[in-house]
């Protein structure tokens, strides 16, 4: 059954199902093509007739990956989808920013009907420019490093103008995202132009304060004391790459004009080099690494957390599945490269023989020293100034989001919780206990979107996080309760190691 809604840019025709309404492929900004490549998002050209919104729009340009099998070469990709209950009333709005490593992913694959109908919320799942199209910078290019963030701000402004037509309350908007999406939510907590556009924030496996050891992401990845580049660093990186590729030549016109004539096919091949927003420009003046611990962020309630075994996904994909499983000798070498003189101390805490394989041991080292510490530091920074609730998704039997190599236990790996929230093409093969956990998680998330507090009737109590009482809620099919997060991830050990320098 069709459903027609009047927007500020024209009418759209969506679909009505038994319990929900679905509108897909709604443009929220003009196509960022030609002269609009690497420009702030511009208004949509209004359309006179009813526009079909029953099919998804184009994904943003990207190459397929093992973790995101999506391919696109179309820059006309600034679309969003709305899933809304059929019931009346003004409902909380939840705007989802997808993950995918910064150069992959799309909003359309996240089927939000379970969340929308069971919890009576309106869910918006947008695309925004990725990789080199969203995070590129170059000398003389205004707004470099922030085009993807600006797209997301345009989505939030679209919500303010139009979401009431779908039953949503523009005065109650929650911005939530996972992985790269969570990183962007963290950026919006700091970005001046995002102030007032959302009223709560949920950061799932975000890594705004993550410090990665050498080889922590993949073989050969460098030690990263921060995940954020400055615009100065971004422009130097871009200038070097552009020079190597010969995209700018003397006598052929201004550099930016030449770059806007480079084909999508050429750009997408190096897109992943530009996988993070940059700070130092108008969109994100200050690094979140500095701003968040200093309390310089928008005062909205925050729900944040991660998965029990975050790094197993990356070790499985980029080491074992790539034909480079870590050996016992290799594990020792990795510890030395990452921790130098402290390598023996780390090996005593994480002996390879205590794990199924040395690869799993390395994944747990990285999961604790980088990911768990990041969640802990992020929660401590926020909780000083705003209501903060922290969780850990702990279902080690969760269905893997990608195939894992034989003999590599996925555990509660990075992004394992997402199929509990959304259907990704098809429902995940959850057992009865896991389905109950999925429903409980969505109830917590929706309660938080409704009031800034995840608690509600018939739910296990979830206390706020504070430095005095750093409570982390463990989300597991068999039990939902507080967990000894710091001890579980040996955070005192890692803090002492960091203090030693």
How large is the radius of gyration?
22 Å
The chain-level structural class is alpha/beta
Q: Would you identify the CATH architecture of the domain at 1-170 and 229-275?
A: 3-Layer(aba) Sandwich
CATH domain class of the domain at 1-170 and 229-275 = Alpha Beta
State the distance separating the first and last CA atoms. Answer: 63 Å
Structure description:
By secondary structure, the chain is α/β, with parallel strands linked by helices. It has a domain at 1-170 and 229-275: Alpha/Beta hydrolase fold, catalytic domain (Rossmann fold, 3-Layer(aba) Sandwich). It is 32% helix and 17% strand. It has helices spanning 113-119, 131-135, 147-162, 180-190, 231-245, 255-260, 264-268, 288-291, 312-320, 328-339, 343-349, 358-383, 418-421, 432-451, 485-488, 491-500, and strands at 2-7, 10-16, 20-27, 51-52, 79-85, 91-97, 110-111, 122-126, 168-178, 200-204, 229-230, 278-279, 302-307, 388-393, 423-424, 472-475, 480-483. Strands 1, 2, 3, 4, 5, 6, 8, 9, 10, 13, 14, 16 and 17 form a 13-stranded mixed beta sheet that branches. Strand 2 (10-16) and strand 3 form a beta hairpin. Helix 9 (312-320) runs antiparallel to helix 12 (358-383) and helix 10 packs parallel to helix 12. The longest helix has 26 residues, at 358-383. The termini are far apart. This is Carboxylesterase/lipase family protein.
